[in-house]
Amino acid sequence: MEQYIIKGGHPLVGEVEIGGAKNAALAILAAAIMTDETVKIDNLPDVNDINVLLDAIAGIGATVNRIDRHTVTINGRGIHDFSIEYDYIKKIRASYYLLGAMLGKYKHAEVALPGGCNIGSRPIDQHLKGFRALGAEVEIEYGKIMAEAEKLVGKHIYFDVVSVGATINVMMTAAMADGLTIMENVAKEPHVVDVANFLNSMGANIRGAGTDVIKIRGVRQLHSTEYSVIPDQIEAGTFMFAAAATRGDVTVLNVIPKHLEATIAKLEEIGCEVEEFDDAVRVVSKGDLTSTHVKTLPYPGFPTDMQPQIGVTLALCKGTSTITESIFENRFKYLDELARMGANVKVEGNSATIEGVEKFSGARVSAPDLRAGAALCIAGLATEGITIVDDIVYIQRGYERFEEKLRGLGGIIEKVETEKEIQKFKLKVG
């Protein structure tokens, strides 16, 4: 089992290049099968989730050609199987985007009920509500969602809760339905906008992505396109909080600063200096940082995917901070691990109280999910001594060359598999 071993206590300094947005890329890859022509997508992150989805797409008969680590062409003409098996779904939840894509194009799809990170229940009732509103019959049998329609017809759909997944999935189906679909109370995240832009580049007619109301005029067919995925705001934010926690000076390159406003606001609140450029953001963390209060909210609020990273940072800030998690109920598991490193935390229901400590101490901890795993690595980098992070398979699902990028900023971190490698690292770093 692979682990990260970290020798902390050094400020992270330098520049780091941010890759394509995993969450946008997953939905865009699914949408790419909605035409019989070849689609080229670049700025893909080279992470496990992307590779698993590409395998799933090839598995149903699409032609998938990896041009390089970050570029792929997909042609959906050869699709002959409308069933996505559990083996793919249990590895990555986002395989369910193939449901919306296949239902839109072929009027038929079967997808196993999803898995993914264990951060709380993520019901798919809003997806099914949207598909049914467009005229599909949807059944759940034998652990599968089966959706079929003789004809899909545009409808006025009001979502009961704001859901990124449902917004994207139903938007894909509606792109090839007859007539006008109006979706209200939709998610406004940058990756929703990116998927809409991608579909429009294939000939879809989608307006209003990024606002509360999306209007979609269905088209009969979509065509080939070339498209570049937006930068990953969560990867960027992770390195920004790594700079804060280690009292460093890091410039994140290839970002859209507008997407990082909530993260920047919190960094400035706790006492960091933040400088924005056209496509870069610099975070400088000097001296004492102070406590603040955070509540996770749908975009443009503070992202739930940045909650563990700010949690680790706040545990090293002077004073008492609170975090209220309003999206996922199991998102505080990392705080138990952080307590092993000396953090002073108390969780009650969906809120956590964090009393800042001067420093952590190195310990062996386990990554409970993707973002929490990255946050525990930040804790290790901010800690005097040695930290070992287990279960890093979660981190590799969503961060490309994570340890290499941290080493590029002066972090002392290595991937190891055996006790012998751990001892070798300890001897090397003294």
From TrEMBL:
Catalytic activity: phosphoenolpyruvate + UDP-N-acetyl-alpha-D-glucosamine = UDP-N-acetyl-3-O-(1-carboxyvinyl)-alpha-D-glucosamine + phosphate
Residues at which UDP-N-acetyl-alpha-D-glucosamine binds: R93, R122, P123, I124, D125, Q126, D305, I327
Ligand binding (phosphoenolpyruvate): K22, N23
Keyword presence, Kinase: no
2-(S-cysteinyl)pyruvic acid O-phosphothioketal: residues carrying this PTM: C117
One Pfam family, short name: EPSP_synthase
Any one GO MF annotation of this record: UDP-N-acetylglucosamine 1-carboxyvinyltransferase activity
Enzyme class: transferase
Keywords (A to Z) from UniProt: Cell cycle, Cell division, Cell shape, Cell wall biogenesis/degradation, Cytoplasm, Peptidoglycan synthesis, Pyruvate, Transferase
Residues of the active site: C117 (proton donor)
Highest rank taxon of the organism: Bacteria
Nuclease keyword on record: no
Principal location: cytoplasm
Compartments reported by the entry: Cytoplasm
InterPro entries: Enolpyruvate_Tfrase_dom, Enolpyruvate_Tfrase_sf, MurA_subfamily, RNA3'P_cycl/enolpyr_Trfase_a/b, UDP_GlcNAc_COvinyl_MurA
EC numbers on record: 2.5.1.7
Location of the Enolpyruvate transferase domain: 7-406
Family affiliation: Belongs to the EPSP synthase family. MurA subfamily.
Protein name (Swiss-Prot/TrEMBL): UDP-N-acetylglucosamine 1-carboxyvinyltransferase
Origin species: Dorea hominis
